[in-house]
Amino acid sequence: MNDSAARLDTAADRRDLIILGGGLVGMTLALAAARAGITSHVIDRADPADLTAEGADGRASAISTASWNLFGKIGLAPALSGLGCPIDSIAVTDGMKPGRIDFTPKPEEGTLGRMFANRDLRLALFDAAKDEPNIAWHVKTEAVRRDRGAHGVEVELSDGRVLKASLLVAAEGRQSPTRDEAGFALAKWDYKHRAMVAGLFHEKPHGNTAWEIFYPAGPFALLPLLDDAEGRHRSALVWTVSEKDAAGVVAMSDAMFVNEVERRMHGVLGTISLSAPRMSYPLRFHHAGHVIDERLAVIGDAAHGMHPIAGQGLNLGLRDVGALVEVLREGMRLGLEPGDMELLKRYEKWRSLDSFMVMSVTDGLTRLFGVPGRLPSAVRRLGMGAVQRLPTLKRFFMDEARGMSGTLPELLQG
Q: What residues does the FAD-binding domain cover (predicted)?
């Protein structure tokens, strides 16, 4: 991979896009754009070999039905086939008390999504990108100067090279320096919670069911993964704890941690053990009021960061990808430049409402289930029982989980 990356680094021609950030969202954008005939420079300071090394990242991501449609249309499905665990149902419960909701689509509707190891997603993306002539991939370097003007954009890299394009795309993640440099206002707050992430082996099979168990301190999610090569059952854990308790949880021995996790699982998967190293990160919300500026578009976590309660963070970024590629492709067919402001305004209008709605629902659920006490719990379970009995409401929530609601970009449609 390094040889290919070095070969691609020699490309210094002007291209349609300069994409800052070659993570899951940035590289998906580059590949989707390339399939539409749109050229790009992709800049990432990381070494791809480090990102895909065995054990470097034990995290997993839920890929919605709509996002899987995108992967299929840009040619990633063959490489990912057989690597994702289908999510056939989602069980939602308030502390494992009576009144849970079971979301299970009809067989002809397919799954609610698929769980993939982040490493597998990266390997598929990087392998596809390294042989794509429409992508010039610049690794182990970063932007030290970004200039945007009426005639295009210019980026100087830390190794001295200068790249030019029509449009700059910031896909640098939550701490995007390009977004901050552009002065975008952010609605943001700290949940004062921390997500504890780990991989689990467990005694009982998960039956392709994802569990979302809500406790007053925060949601506790069990996400199904494929059995390992030895046939051991596996799931990914995302356990939300209060920031005031986080230091104590982080300091726990593995045995103590497993005991606490097992206690909250109420035996649904039997005895457990750790299958991957534990990680933790703070939970914060941010939403950019604008996602465009002169010859600039912001996508993925650079534009919006949300609570992982519904597993929609990456999927929201992939919806950004689909919308941006569709807008650029249609505009370029009419002879417009990718950096044309009218195209960017269309992208912003399309994405702003959708991302705000998804994030508002996610934030609302986090706050609703975080209210302690018997009365709030009883009210929640009463509402959950109503949803369980009403097919129309269940259909709405399942469509949201599958990413099939709203005005979808063509790349994400079935």
A: 16-352
pLDDT band per the 50, 70, 90 thresholds, residue 384? low
9 within 8 A of 285, measured Cβ to Cβ: no
Whole-angstrom distance, CA of residue 19 vs CA of residue 167: 9
Q: What angle do CA 370, 375, 380 make, to 5 degrees?
A: 55
Which residue has better confidence, 47 or 29?
29
- Please check the confidence at residue 284 and state whether its pLDDT lies above 90: no
Residue-wise pLDDT tens digits, 248-266: 999 999 999 999 999 999 9
Query: Looking up tokens 């409402």, which residue turns up?
Result: 353
SS3 242: strand
Mapping DSSP to helix (H, G, I), strand (E, B) and coil, where does residue 293 land? strand
CA distance 388 to 384: 6
Taking CA 237 as the corner, what is the angle to CA 231 and CA 312, rounded to the nearest 5 degrees?
115
In DSSP notation, 163-224 reads: EEEEEEEE---TT-HHHHHHT--EEEEEEEEEEEEEEEEESS--TTEEEEEEETTEEEEEEE
Q: Name the token pair of 71.
A: 């992967």
Contact 215, 95 (CB under 8 A): yes
Highest mean pLDDT among 10-19, 217-226, 318-327, 379-388: 318-327
Domains of the chain: 2-188+286-412 (3.50.50.60)
Residue 226, helix vs strand vs coil: coil
Structural tokens at position 271: 């005895």
Cβ atoms of 266 and 211 within 8 Å: the answer is: no
Report in angstroms the alpha-carbon separations of 46 from 32, 141, 168, 342.
21, 8, 19, 33
pLDDT of 73 reads: 97
Alpha-carbon gap, residue 240 to 262, rounded angstroms: 15
Cα angle 151-157-162, degrees, rounded to a multiple of 5: 40
| 281: its two tokens | 């990160």
